[in-house]
Amino acid sequence: MDSIVPSSLSLVSVLSLLACSIQVLAAVLLTHRYGRRSSVKDRWILLWLYYDVIVHLTLEGPFVYMSMVGTVQTSEGPLAELWREYGKADSRWLVSDPAIVSIEILTVVLDSLLAVLLIHAILRDKYYRHFLQITLSVCELYGGWMTFCPDWLIGSPHLNTSNGLYLWVYLVFFNGVWVLVPVLLLVQSWFSLRSLHVLRTDHDINIAKKMM
């Protein structure tokens, strides 16, 4: 079984994980600042949404830019170093792979917009909240599927699974979060919409009884 040996943790690896921690902290602070009046469940959802937007705009946005003007491999700067580190796990991110860049353009533009609108809908208790929540979750799941399925179908030649850090942290954990949370949000929307339907049905029955 592969393990994450100390030699796998380069300075860039540590700084990349630290950057992710700072993003989580920023999401926590935004949730505390704007979501104090929300329910506990909605505060957890807001935490995820703030983190989702931060990642899309501060990490994936620069990736799209670097890929449109060149490649991650030939770019310079801290974010290029961070993406080159992730590219050790999935080499497609180094060379402006058209499929990856296409998915990321949609992610940065559409998913970020949907997440911001969903944050507003939750904070303002808008009627379209679950429409946005379901749409965003499906988009995130579709993006994840189309990121990895094409490579799986040809034997995963671009994925480095021989190293524990790259496999379990970069590939499984960081991508798995964008599978697990959208699925949980879909389940939450399902139960919320079902409850609304039950309330509406009971209300209609009560009105019908009064009219008899």
From TrEMBL:
The chain crosses the membrane at residues 12-32, 44-65, 99-119, 131-153, 165-187. Keywords: Membrane, Transmembrane, Transmembrane helix. The keyword Transport does not apply. It is found in: Membrane. Pfam families: EBP. InterPro entries: EBP (IPR007905), EXPERA (IPR033118). One of its GO terms (cellular component) is endoplasmic reticulum. PROSITE patterns: EXPERA (PS51751). One of its GO terms (biological process) is sterol metabolic process. The keyword Coiled coil does not apply. Residues 41-186 form the EXPERA domain. GO terms for molecular function: cholestenol delta-isomerase activity. It is a multi-pass membrane protein. Belongs to the EBP family. This is EBP like. It comes from Seriola lalandi dorsalis.
